[in-house]
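Side project, low priority. Logging it here so it doesn't get lost.
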Amino acid sequence: MDLIHTITPVLKAYGLNASQLSIERINSGHINYTYKVLPGYVLQRINKNVFLQPRVLSDNLKEASSFLKQNAPDYLFLHAIKTLSGEDLFFDEEGYPWRLFPYFENTVSINEVANDKQAYAAAQAFGQLSRQLQGCDISKFQETIPRFHDLSLRYEQFEMALSTSSSERIQLANELIDKYKSYKYLVEKYTNLIRSNQLILRIIHNDTKINNVLFERDTNKIVCVIDLDTLMPGYFIYDLGDMIRTFVSPVSEEEIDFSKIKIREEIHQAILDGYLSEMGTILSDEEKLAIPIAGSIMTYMIGLRFLTDFLNGDTYYQTSYPRQNINRAKNQLYLLELLESQV
């Protein structure tokens, strides 16, 4: 992508001159392209191949924003800046939707959790977002990615990939495939949770990695939750489980030295304490029974998705080297084994 050629008309739609701004790629996330546009803005190109109905993203944000303005006016909720023509999205000549957000000075995002204070603050922030949206009309929100965290669907997609993948890719991942099959019982546990109506559908973030909150520079105080593309109906185990998946280990899902993967108990406890400080009185007693399995379900699901993407030819997640998705799937399997040993 020719960055200046592509971004110039996008910024022009917002009344901005690209030649007068500093534009820098923010290299985090597997799906969208995000840029720091200084002074004052963050620009994001939405992946149209993932978000097939990008206007749903902006509609959900509008609905959440309207509810929060009336019910929690002091809560800092990230709003998209409108184009000169009053639109929330700008579509470029290739059909990619773009959004512009304000840039908050003296803030940072981090990619790995360094201590329990960071874990507690982030978990509290994600919990607070769901708590503040408690009572909104959930029927007014749509799924930006249908069945995004539906583990039964993800296993079906895994099985489909096995039937259509090349023999070469299946051979490369053969041992890993067998190991993921051995954890299919988690699909059954997940399905039973949903069918039993033990979990309540809520508006949640659905992508609770640590880099989706902004910290004040040099402190552990949260400024706001960001990356709201998947703000939509879901179950609390998705948010809590993905925090456990991405916070507890000192290394990320990209680490290939699996001996570095471990469960930091103080981080795990901080996640639970921070999240429940906001959601403890909101969750039902039946929902709380699902807390111990949340991390395993989300770790298994993401690992399955990495493996499925490899089998499908690496078409979904951004990769920078061959077999990266295999390494990601192995990484998540190692973490899953640790989590399951504690249940």
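Brief comment: The chain has a mean pLDDT of 94.
Revisit when time allows.
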